[in-house]
Design goal:
Elements (H helix, E strand, L loop, with lengths): L4 E2 L23 E5 L3 E3 L6 H18 L4 E3 L6 E4 L15 E6 L2 E6 L4 H14 L2 E2 L5 E2 L5 E5 L3 E4 L5 E4 L7 H7 L18 E3 L6 H4 L13 E4 L2 E7 L4 H18 L7 E4 L12 H8 L6 H17 L5 E7 L16 E5 L16 H13 L3 E6 L16 H10 L2 E7 L12 H13 L5 H13 L3 H13 L23 H17 L3 H21 L11 H14 L18 H6 L13 H15 L1 H15 L1
Parallel strand pairs: 3-4, 3-5, 5-7, 12-20, 13-16, 16-17, 17-18, 18-19, 19-20
Antiparallel strand pairs: 1-11, 2-10, 6-7, 6-11, 8-9, 14-15
Helix pairs in contact: 1-2, 5-7, 9-10, 10-11, 11-12, 12-13, 13-14, 14-15
Bound molecules: zinc ion (2 copies).
The site of one zinc ion has 6 residues, from loops.
């Protein structure tokens, strides 16, 4: 798959308010589309053509405030769709499209399963200003007419064959179509929308059940990994031919049951379990030693054999997926993945304060370069959530676009950015913004992300979007912990360099300004919800109203806790799902929020927090004095 976009546009499109004057168009430069135009379909349209025409008809009718007709014959003023168009797409890569002006009319066509449909979304975005920011917020300015430059010839070819992320809106069909998400793991895209790239059987860590490791533990311990001097069911032995046969049979059985020959691509995941217990038996060791001493060698050899069997059985639109992470991160020598093998790399140990081409990420970058040199189907499983402290701000905004560019520049074909998939249980941060930024960058890694962010902030947070932008810029500047780097796995809640009190007050003021600017209850609620992550940070850093000098610190903590609960939060850490209403009140009042997840007074640290803070409270004179000084400072 190639690249990119060639856009030849003379001028940026003008979006006018309802019933404004007719746009100042020059006949030689633009064609003007209004309510008299028709959607032109072939006599017997395909499902994809009907879907595309329906989308254009519905949205253009909304723009013009008048019903736009779809017809099968027209001499002029038409938007021709699919085979009704005169667009030559013979040179356009799969699932790409072309949008052209020919003789004063619009022609739209696409390739493979989804090219045509997404061309309609691009047309609406480019020329009508339609933006699907969230599953609930779509911008579509109304106007009497829209202008399209006469020399328009847009060609788009997808940067990635599979794109995927979490949070809330990316699960929505319309959001996914508009913002280019194609993987079926988290969304349902019907055949007329072009279908999706699906994992059959499982998304990850499938090797245990595919090799039936547990089942054979007693009868055939040699099927299990030999690790640290004993057999363990945590991974299988990958050089045992019986294990390969069992796994291949299971993969073929999955395909017999679920294969769809019309799908764009189907994937069977043969991926290691989430541990370091790889087999170190004599055979595995010898094979790996002969291939650069890399444990990825036996894994790759194993999946190559399965991929051969899949191909021999005629499954041409199927790929076998395996991981390159933990002990398989580094590419082997002298063995290369088959064309129908996906190597899915996970930058799980990488620094999120800096992009992947920074010095601190050199190990992963080297592995990426090596795999990129031998693998034709490289995929990525990236991360953009602080899983230990999802209530806190993860200031990785500055690396999102560059990292996705790096993937594309290393011939990566599929990207999944794991977000906060438990968002319904913990939504206090910049969830929707983050999801939108990631989606837009996967759709086009070289998009004008600044303008996308600003557009989003105005739509989501309202007229105070500019204040929100300044806040986000400060967070981005502060990305990193005390040593300047940050890792979401091990980093503390304070995934931000120290912010001085004066700057804390400045940021507080920006939140206030944003809130005051809100025009709707929804905008106000969005600002307040995102602000919870800032309050969470202050509470842990003992800054602002959470300063230890503030005699009301305990009350402030309790208020934050209640606001977090009122926002619907039921989970304070990934995998930790306990009844938050049962957290001891002393824990809430006297320990920082990053300790709340312990619930009861179960840790020595929490007990110390409570003891010390209660002592201070029992000495009213000292308390009054520090309170006086605090108020002096903050007045
Ligand atoms: Zn082995
Ligand atoms: Zn770093």
């Amino acid at each position: 798959m190639k690249k990119a976009v060639s856009v030849i546009l003379a001028l940026v499109l003008i979006m006018l308010p309802v019933f404004s004057a007719v746009p100042a168009a020059s006949e030689n430069v633009h064609i003007m589309i209004d309510k008299t135009w028709k959607i032109l379909l072939p006599e017997n349209p395909t499902d994809a053509e009907q879907f595309t025409a329906g989308k254009l008809k519905k949205c253009l009718s909304e723009v013009f405030g008048a019903e736009i007709e779809a017809v099968s014959s027209a001499d002029e003023k038409f938007i021709a769709v699919g085979s009704a168009s005169a667009c030559d797409v013979s040179g356009v890569a799969d699932n790409g499209y072309r949008i052209m002006v020919i003789d004063g009319n619009i022609h739209i066509n696409g390739t493979a399963q989804r090219g045509l449909q997404i061309a309609a979304y691009r047309f609406l975005e480019e020329f009508c200003g339609r933006k699907v920011y969230t599953s609930k917020i779509t911008a579509l300015p109304q106007s009497e007419s829209i202008l399209v430059p006469v020399d328009t010839d847009i060609v788009y070819e997808p940067y990635f064959e599979s794109t995927d992320t979490d949070w809330r809106s990316p699960l929505d069909t319309e959001y996914s179509m508009a913002n280019g998400l194609t993987n079926g793991s988290r969304r349902s895209l019907s055949p007329e929308m072009g279908g999706s790239v699906d994992y059959l059987g499982g998304f990850c860590h499938t090797i245990g059940w595919l090799c039936e490791t547990e089942e054979y533990a007693d009868s055939h311990p040699e099927y299990l990994a030999f690790h640290d001097g004993e057999r363990t069911a945590e991974q299988p032995c990958l050089t045992n031919p019986d294990v390969l046969r069992i796994c291949t049979d299971n993969v073929l059985r999955i395909l017999e049951e679920q294969h769809n020959p019309d799908a764009p691509l189907q994937i069977v995941s043969v991926t290691q379990n989430d541990n370091y217990s790889n087999c170190e038996c004599e055979n595995c060791k010898a094979f790996e030693d002969a291939h650069g001493g890399k444990p990825s060698a036996s894994m790759l050899n194993f999946v190559n054999s399965i991929a051969d069997a899949v191909k021999e059985n005629g499954y041409d639109n199927v790929a076998i997926d395996t991981f390159a992470y933990l002990y398989t991160l580094e590419a082997p020598k002298g063995i290369t993945p088959r064309e129908n093998v996906i190597i899915r790399m996970c930058p799980i140990n990488c620094c999120m304060a800096h992009a992947l081409d920074a010095v601190c990420n050199r190990d992963f970058y080297k592995a990426l370069e090596d795999w990129s040199g031998i693998c034709k189907r490289l995929y990525i499983w990236d991360y953009a959530t602080h899983y230990l402290h999802p209530c806190a701000i993860l200031p990785n905004f500055g690396i999102i676009q560059r990292n996705i560019q790096i993937y594309y520049e290393h011939n990566v074909k599929g990207v999944y950015v794991e977000g906060n998939y438990f968002i319904d249980s913990c939504d206090t941060e910049f969830a929707e913004l983050r999801a939108y930024m990631i989606s837009k960058c996967m759709q086009d890694p070289y998009c004008d992300l600044d303008s996308e962010i600003n557009g989003f902030l105005d739509a989501y947070y309202g007229p105070g979007g500019g204040y929100m932008r300044r806040i986000i810029d400060i967070f981005t500047k502060r990305a990193g912990t005390f040593d300047g780097h940050m890792n979401f796995l091990y980093g503390s809640w304070a995934v931000m360099r120290p912010i001085m009190s004066a700057e804390v007050r400045a940021i507080d003021n920006l939140w206030k300004q944003a809130e005051l600017s809100a025009k709707t209850g929804e905008q106000f609620a969005n600002i307040k919800r995102s602000e919870l992550s800032w309050r969470w940070w202050k509470a842990n850093a003992a800054k602002g109203e959470f300063s230890h000098l503030n005699p009301k610190r305990a009350d402030m903590l309790e208020e934050l806790y209640r606001d977090i609960l009122n926002a619907g939060v039921t989970v304070l850490q990934e995998f930790v799902d306990e009844d938050l209403t049962e957290i001891d009140r002393d824990v809430i009042r006297y320990s920082p929020p990053d300790q709340w997840h312990v619930g009861k007074e179960s840790s020595a640290l929490v007990r110390d927090f409570i003891k010390i803070n209660k002592l201070v409270e029992k000495a009213p004179f000292i308390f009054a004095l520090v309170g006086y000084i605090y108020n002096l400072i903050h007045s």
